[in-house]
Amino acid sequence: MTIAVVETWIEEPLKRFVGDARVRLALLLHTSGQVVAQSGFTRAIDVMSACALAAAIHASAGELGKQLDGKPFHVLHHAGKSRQIVIAPAQTKRGLYIFLTVFDQESSLGLVQLYFEEFAKRLADAAPAAEPTPVVLAENFERDLNRNLASLFGR
Amino acid sequence: MSLVNYATREITCKIVYYGPGRSGKTTNLHYIYSQVPEDRKGKMVSLATQTDRTLFFDFLPLDLGQISGFTTKFQLYTVPGQVYYQTTRKLVLQGADGIVFVADSQARQLQENIESMQDLHANLAEQGMDAQQVPLLIQYNKQDLPSDLILSVPELEDALNFWNVPNHAADALHGHGVFETLRGISELVLKKLSAGAGSR
Asked: Stretch B40-59: mean pLDDT, rounded?
């Protein structure tokens, strides 16, 4: 099981959830679609696509819920032939995150929901209040940027 | 909001291509996708209608490589341009680190450009983002069309560029100006991110 996290406080709650709930994939992301942590993905770039789609599903279902029910839908569940997806929000002091997990016959919706509640609580407890310090780029970052973009476009 | 992973020294930035319907936002992404080597890009995701009009968004992840010791990744999004997809545009705009406004240079599209720019400012304000602080660049697309059909860049600047942000003339279909636009917005976003840069 490979887990990658942007900030270390997320690692333990995620590791525990993946082990307990026996899920195949797990993703924690910002509502803007930026990945915060992942487990089970093999190629970083696929994580980004999954995040963009998960954020879109969460946002559109939230709007639909507001229009139908006056408040956003809390948990979304999609059942496929062999795999199932659960998407749910997790509130912390750092703000709202979206959690996406994929599981198969090794787990069940009930198990995932049960451990998700625990995961969300652990995440909320572990989240530090302070934002990370801003990044400092070298003054001459434009040189790197121009070189990399030129190579990206084969120039 | 740019995401910085200090453990792996990675920066991820979200750039949104905004503008009226059929101005060329998706065309910009398609051109970029066609030019970038396989190992530097992810799958291009398009949530489109059966006639290929953008329904929710297009999404293209790019790996820019090392910049100042950080592995830098850009996530390029487009919004649907048509007026009735207002809610969707707001959702996609969430957390944008930079915006490329793709204007349609055709004279008959001027009013659509102005309305879309106003819509952008209103949506940014609604999300508590100051339109004068968000890195923004205007691309005047379709400048390759016959001159009697289009407005010149100075004419478009007068009508659309309220805050004198950087601009690029482009013909996205054939790739002219696409690279320069991406480079321009990348610079603005990274400058904003770097220490001490509080504005454009």
From this structure: 84
> What is the Cα–Cα distance from B73 to B39, expressed in whole angstroms?
13
Choose the closest CB to B45 out of A52, A132, A146: A52
Shortest distance between the Cα of A140 and any Cα of chain B, in A, equals: 8
Residue from B2, B5, B16 whose CB has the most chain A CBs within 10 Å, to mutate: B5
The minimum CA-CA distance between B175 and chain A, rounded to whole Å, is: 11
CB pairs under 8 A between A and B: 137
- Annotated domain spans of chain A: 3-152
Assembly ipTM? 0.77
| pLDDT tens string B66-119 | 888 888 999 999 999 888 788 889 889 999 999 999 999 999 999 999 999 999
The DSSP secondary-structure symbol of B20 reads S
Q: What is the CATH number of domain A3-152?
A: 3.30.450.30
Contacts of A136 in chain B (CB under 8 A): 194-195
Domain B3-193 has CATH 3.30.470.20: no
A117: buried, middle or exposed (CB in 10 Å: 19+, 13-18, 0-12)? Answer: exposed
pLDDT at B198: 43
Mean pLDDT of B137-166: 97
Nearest alpha-carbon partner for A53 in A94, A100, A7, A5: A100
